[in-house]
């Protein structure tokens, strides 16, 4: 494993475990483990073959039951690159837009971070999809899948277990890390956060970072509203997203990891300020290059 703390499994409700990968930075995502009476439902996989095998070992440490269902909260590789290790014995569920996005993305992260030990990653998209909602039953326990995008991406899914007041939020929510909406929507994420808040969960598993509660919605929303205001003011002053990011102080968000995402988020916010719809195509390549420039030329750090 990389020079980061070991992943850990944390029971967050009866039969529901969070698999948390510190330190939650690029490609160190969380997964959910839902143990039913006769099978396990896994929410997301991980970025590398080695890390997904570790996830599978962690599941085996708490139950002998087989993994029969995998839910992808969205298409990004840190959440889907392990699908192939389960696809021969489990259905893989995602939003209707997820399979095409997985195939289009391929193994893009390998080119972004060529030094990471990715292993034998095989692109494996969901083979079961839904458009708005889908309900799973783990014995008597109701597990609801809600489409929540466009937010982090255009195919975001959250997993809501009403009887446990527990929400697995995917990358709509980060804890301790900077949110990232370059491929999604600032306004769409704010709307999604309102819908998630209305569920009134007591426990929230973010896509990255430690388990928290509904206070995570408020932190994320404050950041995104700040991004919107910064984009509006900077556009009015004739600044570019990179210039705006360089001139802005990060304030209460300065201690969040991966702060260079401010540039990508501003690219999305500038586009929406100019009238682009949520999730509309924008020049993401330029945004990624400028994130590195904002970082003083230092490549984005991935410890997967």
From TrEMBL:
Keywords: Hydrolase. It holds the Pfam family Lactamase_B. The keyword Hydrolase applies. Residues 28-208 form the Metallo-beta-lactamase domain. One of its GO terms (molecular function) is hydrolase activity. PANTHER family: ACYL-COENZYME A THIOESTERASE MBLAC2, METALLO-BETA-LACTAMASE DOMAIN-CONTAINING. This is MBL fold metallo-hydrolase.
